[in-house]
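**Archive record**
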Amino acid sequence: MRDIWNPWHGCKKCSEGCQNCYMYYLDRIHGNFESDKVVKTENMNYPLSRSRSGKFVVGSGEMLRVCMTSDFFIEDADEWREDAWDVIYQRPDVKFFLLTKRPQRVEKCLPKDWGDGWENVFFNVTCENQRRADERIPILHSLPFKHKGIMCAPLIGQVSIAGYLKEGQIEQVICGGENYDGARECRYEWVKLLREECVDADVTFSFIGTGNIFVKDGIVTRMRNNREQAKAAFNLGLAYKGKPIRYNLTDRLGLPIDESCYAPKFKNRCLTCGNRPICNGCEDCGRCKEDFVDMQKIELFDKLQKSK
């Protein structure tokens, strides 16, 4: 996918949310049985790659999700992380979404010239249950990042973060159920609680997918298809847009760029997708015939949904 950058692949399970990790499942069905072996990929310089016309493949203003098949701060990648930081430093016009279950390692893994953080890095910790929220969010608060968020996915238990949101450091909370073999249930009341706490703190909340097993009002719904899960999450109307997240992005010369320089492209099916608020849009690869949706239509559609 265009919006994912995996400079290394493979991970080691370290907490409850790792039990049914999608990376292990996908590696298994694709014939890779060494998911716990961390290896450097050929994509280290992907954010610096250019098309035949000379333009960057990843444009200014876009967001890249980093290490979605590993952990950016895993010990096994210590020898390559400096190279990854260098790539991030060379693209101050691109947003990099970092997510970790190892916040205790972060401070000693930052670049020497980090200071109080880089504007183009959005740092997130995974909080799959209350135990991990109480363990990781205080560390998140203590670290020098300009942008901070929480990922409650897979959400496998009730999580309350109201006290942490009051500190004013968290800019976004993402929530989703668990997928693939062994998926545990995700309950509507858990998601609703998180949403209510985010609304009270005016923090953006995105419910991206119900997971395979979703429970609401005592009714258990099983959904194997990811798109079906994302649509069901959208239809619940729990997404909330809080205070805007402002990135002071610059070009490579240090000159500010307009944050609206990149507008994601969406297709008809994207209108009812729970992932849309945090999605980079379609890369328009030409492999499907579906037309793009005009942004004005998207805005009108969202207004109609909120009025219901």
Notes: Residues 263-308 form one domain. The first helix runs from residue 22 to 29. The chain is about 25% helix and 15% strand.
